[in-house]
Specification:
The structure is a homodimer.
Chain A lengths: L6 H16 L3 H16 L7 H16 L5 H24 L3 H11 L13 H10 L2 E4 L1 H9 L3 E5 L5 H14 L3 E6 L10 H6 L7 E4 L14 H9 L3 E4 H8 L6 E7 L2 H7 L5 E6 L1
Parallel strand pairs in A: 1-7, 2-3, 2-5, 3-4, 5-6
Antiparallel strand pairs in A: 6-7
Helix pairs in contact in A: 1-2, 1-3, 2-3, 4-5, 4-8, 5-6, 5-8
Chain lengths: ~280, ~280
């Protein structure tokens, strides 16, 4: 996916969101803006927008000497964990627990403070549960799953990871070996090993790092060990827009579960913004 | 009003909107972005955002060698003119025509493709007519008007000018001498003499230019003749957010009629975004 001119306002918006999180003074803010604007002057429009946002978030972390999203990630994990018992009951009571868990995993992708800032998770999730899936390859997924004993699960955001846990629990119940992939280090609201531990996912499946601090999965920037896992996995579940942007045409056997939160991605897919997707590569 | 970091995404958004209007190729687009980003690196946060948007729109017009909004301004004037008979009848049938015309003038401020891109004018105006005025100094305005024989009317956008015409007609009926102020040359969707002629306003009152291509009214950049008019006018009607930003604390006897379309201005006023205002300086 190429970068669109419509991504430029969003690059600025993400910067503002990060600055609001860290609450830094105006001198630091101006330093950040100067650096981010310099990055934007060199945007390679042939690359997905995730490249530029990766550079932007690196610059922000460097200038403020920290991770602006550390606290809010913990907070969103805690909120999502408080919802877990109700969500777990919903899955267990469902006539098709795998389907309900998958749908919840897509619903949980609404938790994205890189795009939304002030969000009532419970309400948003309830709405997502009622919305139609715009591209629904669940049947194909179920078939592919039947012949795969392993699943590589590319996680996305903090908070959302609790919803992923529900789906991973169902995959485990079905006897699958699951490796859940976290980022190598902090970037925006993406999960790292810390979040997997906070939400108890490390007790349910193996957690592996992709060795990268990029938004989405920019394969050449990931570790060789991860690249090997990516290549050999019979089935991949890829969560979130960033992974979709960067992995769109990378390989077969990948299912993209996400909500298209921006106009650029929605246009690429020929869908309405805020569509929910369960889409095979 | 100072510039906020929240203005930065909006600077980019305005650039994207202008580029969409002119339909120029990617090389020109990149040239524009490079120049706009350079302008943004030098933003003086102590000045209103209208300063930066003025520089941005100047750069865009220079690079594309034209006015990207020329066609859409004519189109919005024509749409608004087609609504005029219905709106005129609404004012005439009203128990308080001045009040209805003033309200329509505020409602017409919804026509702002610098902020909204795809807009159903009729529907938006109907909604605006039903909405509450968040800060309503109409009574005070009526009193001030009774003791003023002249009104200086600072126009804002194309399309909206037809709604201003309704209010100016009522002022003329009340025996007031009205001078309607247009921009000295093209900037965004702001009206120039051409728009006053297209919408027939020049047949109703005197049209004067402020001699400037700035967003809002940046007094030091206006002509000396306009500055004199501004100083001596007993009563000023100032339309739109740009004029509010730049004239907020400039003088007494000014009534700001507009909709607060952005979070920054709404916050400055302690109001919800999209509030309608009839506010005395």
């Amino acid at each position: 996916m190429r970068t669109s001119v419509d991504c430029f306002p969003c690059f600025m918006k993400q910067t503002v969101i990060a600055l609001r999180q860290c609450g830094c003074d105006e001198i630091i803010q101006q330093k950040v803006f100067r650096e981010v604007l310099a990055i934007m002057q060199d945007v390679d429009m042939n690359k997905p927008p995730a490249y530029t946002t990766t550079f932007i978030h690196r610059a922000i972390r460097e200038i403020i000497a920290g991770d602006p999203f550390k606290d809010i990630k913990q907070k969103y994990n805690a909120i999502a964990l408080s919802l877990y018992p109700r969500l777990r009951a919903l899955v267990t009571a469902s006539p098709d627990p795998l389907w309900t868990a998958a749908r919840l995993a897509i619903a949980g992708n609404i938790i994205d403070f890189g795009i939304f800032t002030d969000i009532d998770i419970q309400k948003s999730v309830d709405q997502s549960l009622e919305a139609e899936i715009a591209a629904d390859d669940f049947i194909s997924f179920k078939n592919d799953l039947a012949s795969s004993d392993q699943v590589l699960y590319l996680l996305d955001n903090a908070g959302e990871i609790v919803f992923d846990r529900l789906l991973i629990e169902e995959l485990k119940k079905a006897g699958k070996q699951v490796k859940a992939v976290v980022k190598g280090s902090a970037v925006l609201n993406d999960v790292t090993r810390e979040d997997a531990v906070q939400t108890g996912l490390d007790a349910i499946c193996e957690i592996i790092s992709n060795g990268s601090d990029a938004i989405g999965t920019i394969l050449p920037w990931t570790s060789l060990a991860f690249q090997e896992e990516f290549k050999k996995a019979p089935l991949i579940i890829s969560k979130g827009q960033g992974n979709f942007e960067t992995l769109l045409r990378s390989r077969k056997g990948t299912y993209f579960l996400f909500q298209s939160k921006c106009d650029v991605v929605s246009r690429e897919l020929g869908l309405m913004p805020c569509s929910m997707l369960f889409r095979k590569s």
